[in-house]
Every structure is written in structure tokens, then in C-alpha cells.
Amino acid sequence: MVYIPKSINKTKLSRSLDYTRSREFIKAVQQVVRNRFSIIKRNLINEFESHPVTVEISGGVNAKNSSGTLGGKGNLFRFIGFEAGSDPISPISQELSRIDMTMTRVKKDGTSHTNVLYPSADDIFQITPLPWANQRSWAQGIEKGISNLGQFLNIKSEHSRAGAGIQAPNINTGSSFQPVPYITLLIKNFEKEIINLSRAKITMT
């Protein structure tokens, strides 16, 4: 420990220090930031995997409408029209797993700046096309609404991609789709955590 006399202005001394000259300090800061980043990334993935929409779609054709988006009638897998046995969630999971911290730069005053490569909500929407309308995203539809629920019949049919649940154009069931926050909110919360991480001042004891 270094003793600093009271006669020396510690604030001015701190400002005069150049932390970039210490490789040990830089490595320590980078490791702390890396650990915090790993926690933030893991939390995002956990929140996505445990989201009611994700759980329901992962459950496939026999899942319950636990997300409440269909008023308990049928389920999202059938309503959206995914192919039986398909895994619509996988592309999103893969994209989130690729999130990475590309750089942490330590400044002279000891603060750090971190760059993170991650998908935007629009990036996710581009890899989640509706089975029957490639120009539209089912993940975005979860947030903004998906039409034709009024004609959705929760019955088994050989004409259904999922093996159950069909759109009947001449029948109105009186049902409505209830949008819920999904990808956009998850990414926005993740961004907030990353911004806080980049602004945080790491103190070494």
C-alpha cells in the first residue's frame, strides 16, 4: 500500500494517473467486464426461453395456449401454421447464442468502454417469417397482432401444416388475437444492461 500525504490533492493525483500503462489493470478490468457481460447474456437467453410465447411454441402442436394470446383456444403453433415437427424457436436461440463482446477499451482515467455485437429486434424479425407469408414475421406478429384468428378453427385437419387448426374463411368464431410484448422488449432490456455495463467504472481493490 502506498501512503499519500494529506498535503497532496488526491483528486488531482487520480486525474494525473494513466491506467492504460498498467497491463495488469487492463486485464483485470477486461475480465470483470467479461464476467458481467456473460451474466447479462445468460439472463437474456433465460428470459427468452422462459417467455410464455417461447414455451408455448416450443411445446408444438399439443401445447396449451399458456401465453393467453388466443384466449385459450388452440395454441400458437397451430394458429401460426408451423409444420408439424418443426422448431420455429431454434433460429432465434441460435442468433442470441452468437451475441458476443468484441472489445473492452480501458481509458486513462480507469473507466472502460465495451462493444457488444448483438441482433436488433428487426434482425430477429427477418429470420422468423410466417410459414404462409415470408414477407411477414411471426415474432413481430406476436407483438403487433396476427390476423385471421376470427376464422381459426381448432380442429384436426389433413389440410393443416401443423396437423390441427385451420383457417376457415367463411366462418367467424368471434375470437381475437391478444398481442403481448416479446422480442422488442427483451432486446431493449438487454440494451439497457449493456449501456450500463459500458458506463460503469470498474474499481479494483
Compile the SSE list and pairings:
Layout lengths: L9 H7 L6 H28 L1 H7 L17 H5 L9 H8 L2 E7 L5 E6 L3 H6 L2 E2 L2 E5 H7 L7 E5 L7 E4 L15 H17 L6
Antiparallel strand pairs: 1-2, 3-4, 5-6
Helix pairs in contact: 2-8
Task: Describe, in plain words, how this protein is organized in 3D.
The chain is 41% helix and 14% strand. The chain is an alpha+beta fold. Helix 2 runs antiparallel to helix 8 (183-199).
Features:
8 helices; alpha+beta; elongated; disordered N terminus; 205 residues; two-stranded antiparallel ribbon; two-stranded antiparallel sheet
How many domains is the backbone divided into?
A: 1
- Report the portion of residues in β strands: 5-15%
Helix content: 40-55%
Shape: elongated
Oligomer description? single chain
Which stretches are low in confidence, meaning pLDDT under 50 for 5 or more residues running? Answer: 1-10, 149-155, 159-166, 170-174
- Name the structural class: alpha+beta
Provide the succession of SSEs. Answer: HHHHHEEHEEHEEH
**What's the N-to-C terminus distance?**
11 Å
* Count, helices: 8
Number of strands: 6
Spatial arrangement of strands, main beta sheet: 1-2
Task: Please sum up the structure shown.
With 205 residues, the chain is α+β, with helices and mostly antiparallel strands.
